UniProtKB/TrEMBL annotation:
Enzyme Commission designation: 3.1.4.53
Pfam families, per the entry: PDEase_I (PF00233)
Protein known as: 3',5'-cyclic-AMP phosphodiesterase
Enzyme class: hydrolase
Lineage: Eukaryota, Metazoa, Chordata, Craniata, Vertebrata
Domain of life: Eukaryota
Assigned protein family: Belongs to the cyclic nucleotide phosphodiesterase family. PDE8 subfamily.
Alphabetized InterPro entries for the sequence: HD/PDEase_dom, PDEase, PDEase_catalytic_dom, PDEase_catalytic_dom_sf, PDEase_CS
UniProt cofactor(s): a divalent metal cation
Sites where the protein binds Zn(2+) 2: 128
Ligand binding (AMP): 87-91, 128, 254, 306
Pathway connected to this protein: Purine metabolism; 3',5'-cyclic AMP degradation; AMP from 3',5'-cyclic AMP: step 1/1
Keywords: cAMP, Hydrolase, Metal-binding
Amino acid sequence: MSQSQLAIPVTLNDVPPSIAEMLNDEECWDFNILELEAATHKRPLTYLGLKIFTSFGVCDFLNCSEATLRSWLQLIEASYHSSNSYHNSTHAADVLHATAYFLRRERVKSSLDQLDEVAALIAATVHDVDHPGRTNSFLCNAGSELAILYNDTAVLESHHAALAFQLTNRDSKSNIFKNIDRNQYRTLRQSVIDMVLATEMTRHFEHVSKFVNSINKPMAAIEETSTCSESQTNFRNSVENRLLIKRMLIKCADVANPCRPLELCIEWAGRISEEYFAQTDEEKRLGLPVVMPVFDRNTCSVPKSQISFMDYFITDMFDALDAFAGLPVLMEHLSENYKYWKTLDEGKCKSLRPPPPS
């Protein structure tokens, strides 16, 4: 089908059968988002968004029509750059998928209310909107308009959050918030902004340690001393703790690629590497500081970069979420994928895949 032939569905019932069938696996962690990307001609966010938001009763909660939701999803998706190899609407759909998966875990579900769930799904959808395919450091060094606007502080994340609300409020037909009362809107808005800002990696260790110290350790203590599950639930349900849980969910969803099935993990690694290589090329061309010298397409070892990323950021954070939510499938993939990159690295291989046997 050419792009023009693939009409955007008027309702969920109008989704092409092949896509509808694919979306039946959406609750499964091993769901193949790249197949959905191909089937939807790079518009996976609208289709997956319709499915997931409907399953969580988002339209009912916001008192908005499915047509408004669909229009909003299309608007947000169109504001991602399909020219980015990594930060495009497929990444947003992937993060939405992971967020929904986490929200369905029993312990997460019992800790959050529906407003939290709706905020998390919206935050995941918009969290990288209009991403230019360059990092905060690049934008600051280049003296870009965004960096100047946001005073070199959380530049991209501030932009994603602000633009999401600007786009939403621009036109009534795509304004999913138009029918909720002012107080609910304020709370929802605050929560979405907080989650999008939490995806900024400079505060990564602070967010993870707060989660471990304020959620996991006290819960383990309550488990030891109390047989009453109610005291656990009450503890988790405080506003402050719900905030920490929501931040952790979107943070993990945002960088869950190493916990995906190997083939997906490899593809995502190739995509992020390509985006970073392109940035390094541009920095050299413009005479800017090279902020990630390891991501030079002439010298980079992709396996080494993946191993470092997993060691430095991923393992501890997913251990913490796993201890809270129970994520055996993810931890199994993480371990297998780590071994895969280690094996390539030990064989002095710098590429995504081992060389074909000669």
